Amino acid sequence: QVQLVESGGGLVQAGDSLRLSCAASGRTFSFAAMGWFRQAPGKEREFVARISWNGGSTYYANSVKGRFTISRDNAKNTVYLQMNSLKPEDTAVYYCAAGSTLLPSDYWGQGTQVTVSS
């Protein structure tokens, strides 16, 4: 089985930065990619960013491109999301995901709340 555990959420002001972490355990050798999604109140879950497990290619949603950076530490089975220049519209529960395709969705973490005040 696979377990994903997120950490690093919190309450910040607009313009601040946060770094989210996602530690994976279990069958990580089956991953093609890991990524981050988010869900704001009353909205559907949306893709934020992903990174391939081998090679490290990245892809971002247009809404976060240039502000967020996804990275990985394969030795620690951990993926990070560095979020800079945060905006109130970034407020959401952020979910870590992993899977066998480049849009990972086979496994999900429990979510971590990010709240950005104006």
- Class computed from helices, strands and strand pairing: mainly beta
- Characterize the largest beta sheet: strand count, sense, and whether it forms a barrel: 7 strands, mixed
What percentage of the residues does DSSP assign to strands (E)? over 45%
Mean pLDDT: 95
Share of residues in helices: under 10%
- How many strands in all? 11
How many helices in DSSP terms?
Answer: 0
Explain this structure to me?
- This protein has strands at residues 2-7, 10-13, 18-26, 33-39, 46-52, 58-60, 68-73, 78-83, 92-99, 107-108, 112-117.
- The chain is an all-beta fold and 118 residues long.
- The strands form two sheets. Strands 2, 4, 5, 6, 9, 10 and 11 form a seven-stranded mixed beta sheet that branches. Strands 1-3-8-7 form a four-stranded antiparallel beta sheet, with no helix packed on it.
- The protein starts with a strand and ends with a strand.
- The model has no long low-confidence stretch (mean pLDDT 95).
